[in-house]
Structures are given as structure tokens and as C-alpha cells.
């Protein structure tokens, strides 16, 4: 982040700014709400950064994205309203629209199927809502490449700043690899089952196929699906759906630990993944409206593997952990009155460890 403009009281606030420490572990798009927050601090005089420097930093961050119109607006903010937009930005904009149309056409057949609620429901109920079954049915005109293009289109929408669309498409993509519990039939249907020979064994067989409830009922996970889960979490954070973001956070954590325990992630890669998750979790825990977010944060940050990630790669996170512990202690005090001292001391002891 830019240096403070002068030695004012706000300089003290700038000295405690951790943006530059956490930014290497965030998705690029997560930096934009952080910079907006810094802009608000500048406007209120709470921090002495230069607003134009922040705008220039935002412009640099926008270059690898497809948010070209936004980048053009920031370019005019930096260089003046009447500034001539560079040709490379105009070329990038044209390229973005061209690629958008290519991907849109390449995935159209699967998108149409996703929108056909009746056809999709029939495929789900017959256990055919998966890549193999859909691509083997020639009537759909869907190939493995079509589905791959659908995921690429989801990522492209995300890079264009359409996080809602990206999230919806990622949900559809993940559902192809999931096996949620089957809905129990109504009483009348149960009677029909008895007449046709249906029994509890079939229900038991269906239950055995149910995927992991902590990972959107995925039946298995690999490093590719792990990246998809990261994309889901990023979308939820950027649309500020904190309840769903908490679910996505658990899914990513479960996937990391599953891959690590099966040696599909090396210990070093797992350590890096945990470090990234700790940073992303800050958005989720500190925006939790249930009041339990900070308690969950303390539990995660003080667990053995994640505490190792903090001490190895991210000691700056101890500041957030300290604040969470102290706030949890205050909340415990309000709930338990004079009996809360023991709980407060326990939390502080955990932090010292």
C-alpha cells in the first residue's frame, strides 16, 4: 500500500494496516472491496494514504481481469475525465466481448439443459445428472467439451465481475459430481412401492451413494474440484452472502483435509492451501451475523494444522486472532456473568500457546 502523505495522527493507523500482508493470499477480486474500504478511511481522515495512489493501485489490479469498463473509469479518475483511453484497453475490451461470445456458444447446450427444470429433475431422480450419463445421450448434444466450456464461461463471468452469474453456474457444475440424499416419497407412493416390490433395501442402497454433506454432497474430490470449490467460496464472499460463504468455507476446508489425508496434496501444498483459507475466512467470520463467527474463527485458528500455517507463513494473522479471543471473552462475560472468568482465561491460554 502507498506511504502516508505526512506525519499526522492518521499515520498511526497506516502503520497498523495489514493490507499488504494479507493481499498475497487473496483472490485478486477480493482486493477491490478492501480498496473501497481504504478509500472510505481516506475520506474520513482516518488514514493518511493518498487517494490517487490507491486509484492507481486499483488500476494495476484491474489489468489481468476482464472488467475493462471499470478499468476505463479508474483510468479517467487517475488521468482526468477527458483523458484518451489507451488503445490497448480498447483492444482488450474487444477481445473480452469476442471471447465471451465464443464461450457462450460453446456451452449453450448444457446451459439450456440446466434451465429445463423438468428434464433436469428427471435426470436427477434417475441418477443420470452426471457428466457420463449426459454426454452419452446424443439427444442432448452435450459433450465433455461443452461442460468444460460451461465451467470456463463461469470463470469468465467471474473475471468480468459478474459474481452472481459465476456462482450460479459453479453450483450447476458442482451438482454434476454430487449425490445428495434422495427425497423420501409420500405415503401414497410408499404403498405403491409395496405393490411393485420396493423395499428398504433400495433406500439403503441410495443412502450409500450419498456424497459428503460437508462438500455439497460431492461423491469424491480431486485437485480440480478443489479449485472449483475455491471459486464457489470466492463468489459467495464477493456477493456478500455470508451464510452461504460459511458453507463454502467448510467445503473448501473439508476438501483440503480429504486430499491431504489421502496424499493427493503434499504436506507443503496442504500448508499453503490452509494459509490461503485462513485469510479468506476473515471475510466470512468477521461478517457473520449469527454471533458465532468469531468463536468459529478461534476454533479454526487454534487447531493444530491451521496454527502451524499461521506460525509458519502468516504470523500477522495473530492480530486478528487476538482480537477475536478478546471479543469472545467479552461475549462470554455477558452470557455467564461472574462465571465467565474461567472461559476467558482458557481462550487467552490457547492464544499464548
Describe the structure.
The radius of gyration is 25 Å and the shape is flat. Helices cover 70% and strands 0% of the residues. By secondary structure, the chain is mainly alpha-helical. It has 19 helices and no strands.
Quick rundown:
With 353 residues, this protein is mainly α.
Structure characteristics:
single chain, 353 residues, mainly alpha, 0% strand, flat
Architecture blueprint of SSEs:
Layout: H1 10-15, H2 19-22, H3 31-44, H4 51-62, H5 68-79, H6 87-115, H7 117-125, H8 131-136, H9 144-159, H10 163-175, H11 187-196, H12 200-208, H13 223-238, H14 242-261, H15 267-286, H16 293-302, H17 304-313, H18 317-336, H19 341-352
Helix pairs in contact: 3-4, 4-5, 5-6, 6-9, 9-10, 10-13, 13-14, 14-15, 15-16, 15-17, 16-18, 18-19
Amino acid at each position: 500500500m502507498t506511504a502516508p502523505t505526512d506525519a499526522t495522527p492518521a499515520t498511526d493507523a497506516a502503520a497498523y494496516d495489514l493490507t499488504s500482508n494479507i493481499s498475497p493470499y487473496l483472490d485478486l477480486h477480493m482486493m477491490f472491496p478492501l480498496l473501497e474500504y481504504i478509500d472510505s478511511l481516506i475520506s474520513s481522515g482516518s488514514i493518511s494514504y493518498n487517494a490517487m495512489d490507491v486509484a492507481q493501485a486499483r488500476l494495476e489490479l484491474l489489468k489481468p481481469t476482464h472488467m475493462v469498463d471499470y478499468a476505463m473509469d479508474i483510468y479517467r479518475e487517475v488521468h482526468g475525465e477527458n483523458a484518451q483511453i489507451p488503445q490497448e484497453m480498447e483492444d482488450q475490451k474487444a477481445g473480452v466481448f469476442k471471447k465471451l461470445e465464443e464461450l457462450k456458444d460453446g456451452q449453450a447446450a448444457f446451459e439450456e439443459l440446466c434451465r429445463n427444470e423438468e428434464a433436469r429433475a428427471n435426470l436427477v431422480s434417475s441418477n443420470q445428472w452426471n457428466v457420463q450419463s449426459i454426454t452419452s445421450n446424443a439427444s442432448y448434444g452435450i459433450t465433455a467439451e461443452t461442460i468444460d466450456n460451461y465451467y470456463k464461461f463461469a470463470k469468465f463471468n467471474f473475471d468480468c465481475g459478474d459474481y452472481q452469474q459465476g456462482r450460479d453456474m459453479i453450483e450447476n457444475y458442482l451438482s454434476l459430481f454430487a449425490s445428495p440424499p434422495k427425497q423420501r416419497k409420500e405415503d401414497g407412493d410408499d404403498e405403491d412401492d409395496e405393490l411393485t416390490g420396493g423395499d428398504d433395501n433400495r433406500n439403503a442402497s441410495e443412502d450409500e451413494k450419498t456424497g459428503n454433506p460437508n462438500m455439497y454432497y460431492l461423491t469424491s474430490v480431486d485437485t480440480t474440484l478443489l479449485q472449483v470449490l475455491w471459486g464457489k467460496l470466492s463468489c459467495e464472499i464477493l456477493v456478500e452472502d455470508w451464510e452461504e460463504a460459511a458453507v463454502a468455507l467448510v467445503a473448501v476446508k473439508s476438501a483440503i483435509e480429504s486430499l491431504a489425508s489421502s496424499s493427493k496434496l503434499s504436506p507443503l501444498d496442504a500448508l499453503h492451501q490452509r494459509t490461503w483459507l485462513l485469510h479468506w475466512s476473515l471475510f466470512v467470520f468477521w461478517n457473520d451475523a449469527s454471533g458465532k463467527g468469531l468463536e468459529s474463527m478461534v476454533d479454526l485458528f487454534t487447531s493444530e494444522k491451521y496454527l502451524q500455517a499461521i506460525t509458519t507463513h502468516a504470523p500477522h494473522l495473530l492480530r486478528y486472532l487476538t482480537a477475536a479471543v478478546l471479543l469472545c471473552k467479552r461475549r462470554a462475560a455477558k452470557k455467564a456473568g461472574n462465571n465467565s472468568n474461567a472461559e476467558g482465561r482458557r481462550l487467552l491460554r490457547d492464544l499464548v500457546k
